[in-house]
Design brief:
By secondary structure, this protein is an alpha+beta fold. It has five helices and five strands, in the order ααββαββααβ. The chain has one domain: Arc Repressor Mutant, subunit A (Orthogonal Bundle), CATH 1.10.10.10. It has a three-stranded antiparallel beta sheet with strand order 1-4-3, covered by helices on one side. A two-stranded antiparallel ribbon has the order 2-5. The radius of gyration is 13 Å and the shape is globular. The model has no long low-confidence stretch (mean pLDDT 94). It holds the Pfam family HTH_5.
Length: 114
């Protein structure tokens, strides 16, 4: 299988990051991943079809917000908090804090038994 391309931190563009974080589903995924743990795609409870979730995760990866790792047929995702902090200091925390205050993305959760 083809490996996903992840932009280096210095390749991340502010406009791409902001565009990726302009969707409530993607903000919700970022909120769930903000605990720093790697999550399997199957652990994410998202109110969209699997193909739509795959699209959202690709947008986040292409912008440099997440890193995807494939292991066999399973995919795992992590938030690139350190890279985002280095490239755009304070941006991710500001977005996550505002999203939490406004309940943006609250419908994205972890599967309880994962």
């Amino acid at each position: 299988m083809k490996q996903a391309r992840h932009p280096d931190a210095d390749e991340m563009e502010l406009v791409a990051v902001m565009a990726a974080l302009s969707d409530p589903i993607r903000v919700g995924v970022a909120r769930v991943l903000a605990d720093g743990r790697e999550r399997g795609w199957g652990e994410l409870r998202v109110p969209v079809a699997k193909s739509t979730l795959s699209h959202h995760l690709r947008v986040l990866r292409d912008a440099g917000i997440t890193r995807t790792r494939q292991e066999g047929t399973r995919c795992y995702v992590t938030l690139r908090r350190d890279d985002l902090q280095d490239r755009f200091p304070g941006l991710l925390d500001a977005v996550l804090d505002a999203a939490g205050a406004d309940n943006v993305g609250q419908h994205v959760e972890l599967v309880a038994d994962a």
